[in-house]
Amino acid sequence: MDTGGAPAVEDLHVQVLQFPTDVPEADGTLAWDRTTMVLVRARGGGATGLGWTYGDPATAHVITGLLKDEVVGRPVFDVPAANEAMSRAARNAGRPGLIAGAISAVDIALWDLKARVLSLPLTDLLGRARAEVPVYGSGGFTTYERPQLAEQLESWVGQGFTRFKIKIGEQWGARERRDLERTEAARALVGEDAELYVDANGAYTRKQAVRVGRTLAGLGVSWFEEPVSSDDLTGLAHVRDAVTADVAAGEYGYDLPYFARTVPAVDCLQADATRCGGITVWLRAAALAHGHGLQLSGHCAPNAHAHAAASVPNLRHLEWFHDHVRIENLLFDGALDPTGGCVRPGQGGEPGLGLKIRPEAVEQYRVLP
Length: 369
Fold this sequence. Notes:
Order of helices and strands: EEEHHHHEHEHHEHEHEHEHEHEHEEEHE
Shape: globular
Number of helices: 14
Strand content: 15-25%
């Protein structure tokens, strides 16, 4: 492939890492005790870019078996072209879901690589819309008893956070009273002036979500994430129109058309660069939301999102998710510091995402290859 004299992508290297949670965790619809990361290293032009997604180990085989040949040999600078080539190659394989995660991990690695070849922080390459990216503490799993919940929330308060989110919808909405009691406890712990959010992970029925949402209003809850399934766009719109909290969804958006369908149903659009097609598509989702007068919130994987988030004028905030923060701090030197309730990507001048892998951590948690 003719690169016009530009350096080419020379190789993609993929590994699967598994990290046990510090305690068993659950939300409204799922329980887990480990988190799997698929880590990609893209090499070219004398540099190495890092990208990752959180998903099934089979994602690694998609990258090596389906996507790698679409990327290797392309100019390092032509990330959108590589993204489009990967998407076209996946047409008959089933792009949404696991394959979208694979494309996302490679795309993030390619953006990191391009910035490193140019010796620029990624946020400088993309162009800044803001110097600071606001974050919110996210955890509060349904498995947490009061002492664990208090410890987590108080740790974020100690770091200067003013935005906090807990999980509700326990057991597919079967423990509604406990959901409300835990939210009340969270409000008492973070104080009256803090922003308090809840995430039901699609556990409630439509009318149950409205009933719960109206009670949450009395606790000053201002963000109600996935009150019903994110596949039920009619239900999301119904709940949005019936409650005072902002209804948010979009973390399971795997392509731009999904976001276009979701925009009319929410108050704030969420998008996850490790799922939707990488930074390339995440930025397009931000523009789509902006064009409809909505803000965008980055879902999880904060060190993968922060530089792109700094370039988005309609950004609301970025999720400082307990599991992913813990993993990214274990795996990388240069992980971002959220003191004061925001992160400042690129301010140290390190190229790309500003991260360096800790080889000993890779060896400790590697399961493939």
